[in-house]
Amino acid sequence: MLAKTNAAFLNLYKVSKDDLVVEHTHTSMAGGCYHVELAAKYTSFLSSYVKALTLNEGLYLTERIPKRGGFCFFMDLDFDFVDDVATYTNDEWQECYRLCAARLQEVLKTHQANILAKQCQDEVFDGDHVVDMQVYYGGLRMLGSVKPPERDHDPGWVTTKSYTLLDKEFLPLPLGLDNIEASVACLKLASIFNLEGKELTHPTGLPAALSATVTRRPRHESTSAITPWIYEAYGHDSNVIKSVKTKTAGVGRYVLVELDERYCPFQQREHKGNRQYIILSKRAGSYQKCHDHESCDDLKHHPISFADLPSHVQNILLRLTESNDDDDTDAPRPVVAGQDFRKVNDALGISHDDWRDWNSTAVATGHQLWKEATQCILHPAVVHPVAVRACVLIKQDKSVHKICPDCGADVMSKSDAKKVHRAFSQDILHTPASLNSDGKKTPFQKFTHTVLEEASSQNLRRDRKTGDVYAPVEGLAFAFEKLCDAKTWVQNLFADNREFESDVSNVDKLVKYLQDFKNSAFPFLTTQRNYLGFTNGIYNTVTCEFTELAQVPEDFGVVGKYLPYEFTGMTETPLLDGVLNYQFKPEVHDIIYMLLGRMFGIRDHFGVMLYFLGESGVGKSLLIKVISACVANVGVIGGNLEQTFGLDALYETDLVTCDDLPRNISKVFSQDIFQSCITGGKVNVAAKQKRAIMVEWTTPLFFAGNWYPDYLDMGQISRRIVIANFSRPLQEDDPSLLTRILATELPAFVHKVTRAYNDFLLKHASHSLWTVLPQYFRDERDELRMDRDPLLRFLRERTVYMAGITTAMAIVRKEFAEFFGGPAPKKLNHSSFKAANPLYQITKVKLCKHCRKRHLAGCCDRYNRADSTSRDVVENMQFLDVNEEMSIGL
């Protein structure tokens, strides 16, 4: 390979292989080798090299691997590690290090794509004697490469691996910071640099700070217009252009034409792959290139300058290589205003006072944030004499690079990088980090930009779980009202947008974006759930105190629910009272009001749920609709509740209701989950495509139905449900009743029920609820228990307490079967006997096999000690219709 470059200073250092002072070093390069004597010419060489980099000349330093030899030395500037040997030498060395860090961070990736790397990789190396395996696998290593992230922060590895000489016995000679003079002496003995020159216009030879392979397919008419000229200029008259792509290299853009051609005129044979290209650049023109064989590098000797290109090709080339996007993606934009910069600065460990105004620039590899500051971003204790442009490069591979023009660069640890990513990507950047491969916004990114602009201009909020959109109430800073669900809002925003309609998945993508991604331009709605907002102020549902509008603090936040009514402080609800007074006595509906107030936030350990029982049309659902109108998020349980993931839609709501209890509620909503939700226990919540989480349930439950829940009850269910039985049918239905209650009584209802709950807690917070409830609720509890426990109903209706009477369990089982007209279970639940009467005792007795009485000496003429059997009996219980065969005498 010939070394072509306009860096003329290299001619001063060009040597032949025979002139090299270090033996046994692999230096066979077709373009020649370059040697710099450390003692005599090193400083001037570095100065010239710095100037060449400053002028954007296309060159870079590489290292060669010895196939075999007495010793070898790998010189490497590690930009990811601050304690580099380069830090401890002269000023010229530091300046070179600074420019390399800024310009050649991606050069290793660029160079490995070059043919020479492939050639070296195919060589047979002495793997046991290679110091740096990255060099071994890569074929070449550049001055200015980046080591694997896991090794960046291992000082031991850097000291012993990066800067190690091997003597003739292949023993390591460590170079470190303990003995600088000895290290420099070793460097002088082994200072061989091979510089591979590249044409300035060569894509892989440009300074590669932002170099990346980018694919963008031009329009069909552009491809058609270029094709005839390529056929004429390069003689490909019988072949087809496979693809035309626009790519970037360094700071420039070029067009890559891939030929669907296997025959190589230089090799006079077909290649295995389609690896012939035409490169067109508006800076240099065009040339042909082939990757299949090293001899095909001669194809690069047929350049055509840009000025010699036909005018129509020049115009096409200019159009393809210049941005045609209305959005200037690379233009710097300020970070969102507010306090978000503090999160960024905390993650970086820098001062808030000096780092307020970050600028964000989207690049092909991620996002670059920068700021002019005197404080060093790498060493916060260092203050530069003048402001420098400090950068933070947030890459799509999740790594974060801090760059100081004067001090170099550093890769942050994974834990710190996560903090920066969290601060930047979620709170700071206006748009998602995913750019198109050419660094421009994708269509989806444009859509999200439209979403964020619309939300920011309207001061909208969104629900953290559903993505539902909320709009501010005019004149009330503390109030937001639901505008619509996320899907409807997206559809309305992009109505008649042809680009949006071209992909049917755009709606679902944006809805998911609204649900999952944080962005300060469209924040999630965060509320104070114990506050309700009214037109004239805010109401605290815990303290039952009202704050007038003029006294509401400016930084209060957002209320849990806004009710568009005036709060008067009254508690009179005649319409609602009429419904409850028709069904219940005053002491009963007072408890109902108390339990309704409890639904604004449970602050007790009663572990109960309010349940309305009754036929349809008796007013049960009316109360559920009234209380639902007072909270922001209501979860609903119905017969179609998803059994595996159903809780995911319920656990973050303010209230869970069921206005028509399914007859098979135990299959829809399992008994163990039902009990845990009532008692405030821990519940495992599973979500689709997410990890299940364990939560402590705090959301109140409010059910209504035509029948009792079908859960198996041995006392654990009936004591958790406070039942209000709407037993009286309404004489006349009033379809406007709910509307009138909501329009005239809602503020009074809120004040009434929350005060009732507060007053009840002041009196009975330390008591068991069932000991203070009216007898009506205890009777309803027993009815539920008997409905779910047939044995209990049988015992209460057919037996009576009688001291000294013992009844065999077999007799009980027989009577129980006759009572219900079916077979009785083999084992009756003992807790049902206790529930029927605490004085019923179940014991085991020995009976004589002959007389069937207690097995006692002399019980009958045939008495024998061995002739006995054990039987379960119930003591102190007698059947109402008793006969001699039912009882055992004492």
Notes on the protein architecture:
A hairpin with a 2-residue loop joins β21 (469-473) and β22 (476-484). By secondary structure, the chain is an alpha+beta fold. The protein folds into seven domains: 8-205, no CATH class; 220-321, no CATH class; 333-428, no CATH class; 443-525, no CATH class; 531-562, no CATH class; 574-774, P-loop containing nucleotide triphosphate hydrolases (Rossmann fold), CATH 3.40.50.300; 789-886, no CATH class. It is built from 27 helices and 36 strands. α13 (486-493) packs across α15, α17 (586-597) packs across α22 and α25 crosses α27. A six-stranded antiparallel sheet has the order 14-15-16-17-18-19. Strands 28-29-32-27-33 form a five-stranded parallel sheet. A four-stranded antiparallel sheet has the order 8-9-12-13.
Topology (SSEs and partners):
Blueprint: E1 14-15, E2 33-34, H1 42-54, E3 59-63, H2 91-103, H3 107-112, H4 115-122, H5 133-138, E4 141-142, H6 155-162, E5 164-166, E6 172-174, H7 180-189, E7 194-197, H8 220-234, E8 240-249, E9 252-260, E10 263-264, E11 269-270, E12 276-281, E13 285-290, H9 311-321, E14 333-334, H10 341-348, E15 359-363, E16 366-375, E17 383-395, E18 400-404, E19 408-411, H11 414-428, H12 443-458, E20 461-462, E21 469-473, E22 476-484, H13 486-493, H14 498-501, H15 506-516, E23 528-534, E24 537-540, E25 545-548, E26 559-562, H16 574-583, H17 586-597, E27 609-614, H18 620-628, E28 634-636, E29 655-658, H19 665-668, H20 671-679, E30 682-685, E31 693-696, E32 701-705, E33 721-726, H21 737-744, H22 746-764, H23 769-772, H24 775-788, H25 790-798, E34 799-808, H26 809-820, H27 830-836, E35 841-848, E36 868-879
